[in-house]
Amino acid sequence: MTDTKNPETQPPERSELGYAQAVMELEKILEQLETADIDVDVLSGAVERAAWLLKYCRQRINKAEVRIKEVLADLEDQGVPESEP
C-alpha cells in the first residue's frame, strides 16, 4: 500500500522518471535501509517505494527488450544481416 501522505512514496509520472534515475533512487534507499537506526515509519515507506521502483525498472527493461527484438526483426526483414560476434 502506498502512503498517500508522503510524496516520496508516490509513483511519479512515467515521463518524469528515467530508468537510470530509478536505479539511483533504489541505491539510495538501499543505503538508507542498511543503517541500523532507521525509523520504522521511514522503513515502511522506503520498502514500499523500493518495491514500486523495482516493478517500474522491470517494466522498462521488458519494454526495451520487446522494442529491440522488433527493430532486429525489422532489419532482418529488410535483408540486413546480423553482425558476427
Word description of this protein:
The protein is mostly helical. It has a single domain (18-77), classed as Orthogonal Bundle (Helix Hairpins). The protein has helices at residues 19-33, 40-77.
From the structure above, extract its key features:
single chain, mainly alpha, rod-shaped, Helix Hairpins, 85 residues
H/E element sequence: HH
Which quaternary structure do these chains form? single chain
Helical fraction equals: 55-70%
- Count the helices. How many? 2
Taking all Cα atoms into account, the compactness measure Rg is 18 Å
**Largest beta-sheet details:** none
Overall outline: rod-shaped
* CATH class category label: Mainly Alpha
Sheet/helix structural class = mainly alpha
* DSSP summary, beta strand count: 0
CATH topology description: Helix Hairpins
Concise account of the structure shown:
Helix content is 62%, strand content 0%. By secondary structure, the protein is mainly α. It is rod-shaped, with a radius of gyration of 18 Å.
Topology:
Layout: H1 19-33, H2 40-77
